[in-house]
Write a structure and sequence with these properties.
The complex is a heterodimer.
Chain A lengths: L3 H26 L5 E3 L2 H4 L13 E5 L1 H12 L7 E5 L9 H7 L1 E5 L2 E5 L2 H14 L8 H9 L7 H5 L4 H18 L16 H12 L14 H11 L4 H7 L10 H27 L1
Parallel strand pairs in A: 2-3
Antiparallel strand pairs in A: 1-2, 4-5
Chain B lengths: L13 E5 L3 E6 L4 E6 H9 L6 H12 L5 H13 L7 H6 L4 H8 L10 E4 L3 H4 L33
Antiparallel strand pairs in B: 1-2, 2-3, 3-4
Helix pairs in contact in B: 1-2, 1-3, 2-3
Classes of the chains: A mainly alpha, B alpha+beta.
């Protein structure tokens, strides 16, 4: 007998797949080829009974198709939670054309859904998780199951060496964290011979997991002074993982203070950039 | 025979997942999830507009190999109707008000068939963290359970006031 949490996951997964089919059909009908990241692309690696709710649909489209995609989604008459990404932005450094070339199609219901190849997806999930400040312990399992469920011909070189050494180290650290907390098997992989995790990284994520307040977009709570203040306090000093990733820093053993200080200024520019994108979306 | 008096299961706006012993149903118009036990699921699937309540009781007798009084089917229809899983019909209106206690009294505690149960599922807290609250229009916010607003997509592209 399954419990209510598992039932919820099962029905949400069915709903997610139904949404995927509808949105892909709709976007393709309008000449847009989306790429699914995370969500079902991650959950499909989970063993039966271990699943998690896939959440909203994270779809990535090329800058050339972005406006068209927004127009199509704005005309949607049903509520489908879609998070549309303008390219992969900070999540990867490979050109989108190359990622699309290497992408795969998986069958969901009666549709073919485009996803990144396993090697690229593992990289993107790792950076995404770190850039969330490592706050979501349960989502580290996406990385755990992606590694555990990898195909025999999984190409570690394609995964790790397609990006520069700094980014490579981020991915390695995310997998090492998954190994530390969920026992991900890394024997016979290039990860086994890597340097140990920096101490600041372990301290930072354990602090994050112990915190009752999770990082939330400030824009979503600006009318609630109490929660706004909580989020402000949470951001001072900035999360060390997020600060390092945002500034493209090294995951070395040194303290993070310099990244955390610089990140305060970076955030101001990042917010301006986000506002410009939002304003563009509103005008479409 | 298709009569407006016969119960008819709603299909529009529902996402259905069959399980070995139950059926999970997600209502996209209300964003509510329901779990139908085997008995309720059988009744729901039999509500095709051509079967009367008595027909459905007969079908259940064949399926479960036990005596099934009409009251048991009425109880299921009453619950399914309350959860908006049936199209409005005479049958749904007639069923309104049947109590479980009354049905148990009539069919006896020793019934070999489980009473129909339509239970609502509540989102676990872990699921709430799975949405990013990003939006391009207000309609998507209805499905963003856990976001500050279910009806408004604010100027920053977030489901919030």
């Amino acid at each position: 007998m399954v419990d209510d949490d598992k039932r919820w996951v099962i029905i949400q997964t069915t709903l997610h797949k139904d949404h995927l089919e509808r949105v892909f059909k709709l976007l393709r009908g309008g000449g847009v080829e989306p790429l699914l990241i995370k969500g079902w692309a991650a959950v499909r690696h989970y063993p039966e009974g271990e699943g998690r709710t896939p959440g909203d649909l994270d779809l990535c489209v090329s800058p050339a198709q972005f406006e068209k995609a927004i127009k199509i989604l704005k005309a949607l008459e049903i509520s489908i939670p879609v998070d549309i990404h303008l390219g992969l932005r900070h999540l990867d450094t490979l050109p989108l054309e190359k990622l699309l070339e290497r992408s795969e199609l998986i069958r969901v219901g009666e549709s073919d859904i485009r996803i990144l190849c396993d090697e690229d997806h593992l990289r993107v999930m790792a950076v995404h998780w770190l850039n969330d400040g490592g706050a979501y312990r349960e989502k580290l399992k996406d990385i755990h199951f992606a590694v555990e469920d990898r195909a025999e011909d999984f190409d570690w070189d394609k995964c790790l060496n397609a990006v520069d050494v700094r980014r490579r180290r981020w991915i390695v650290c995310a997998i090492l964290l998954s190994h530390k907390y969920f026992g991900t098997k890394i024997e016979n992989t290039p990860i086994a011979g890597e340097k140990e995790l920096p101490r600041w990284l372990i301290r930072a994520i354990e602090k994050e997991w112990a915190s009752p307040v999770r990082l939330q977009p400030v824009t979503s709570i600006f009318i609630d002074p109490k929660r706004l203040w909580q989020q402000f306090r949470k951001r001072v000093p900035p999360n060390p993982l997020q600060a390092t990733i945002e500034l493209g820093g090294d995951f070395d053993r040194y303290p993070r203070a310099i990244y955390q200080t610089a990140d305060i200024f970076y955030r101001i520019f990042a917010t301006r950039k986000r506002l410009r994108i939002v304003s563009r979306i509103r005008k479409i | 025979m298709n009569s407006s008096r016969n119960p008819l299961a709603r299909r529009e706006g529902l996402v259905v997942q069959e399980m070995p012993d139950e059926v999970l149903v997600y209502d996209t118009s209300t964003n509510k999830a329901h779990c139908l036990n085997k008995t309720a699921a059988f009744v729901w699937k039999s509500c095709d507009g051509s079967h009367t309540v008595n027909d459905i009781a007969g079908l259940m007798e064949k399926e479960f190999g036990a005596n099934v009084p009409d009251d048991l089917v009425w109880l299921a229809i009453d619950q399914l109707g309350k959860d908006d899983l049936l199209e409005a019909s005479e049958a749904v209106k007639t069923a309104n008000g049947i109590s479980r206690r009354e049905v148990i009294r009539r069919i006896g505690i020793a019934s070999v068939i489980a009473l129909p149960v339509v239970a609502s599922l509540v989102a676990p807290s872990s699921a709430l963290a799975a949405v990013s609250c990003g939006c391009v229009n207000p309609t998507v916010c209805g499905a963003m359970i856990g976001c500050p607003s279910l009806v408004n997509c604010n100027g920053l592209g977030i489901c919030a006031p």
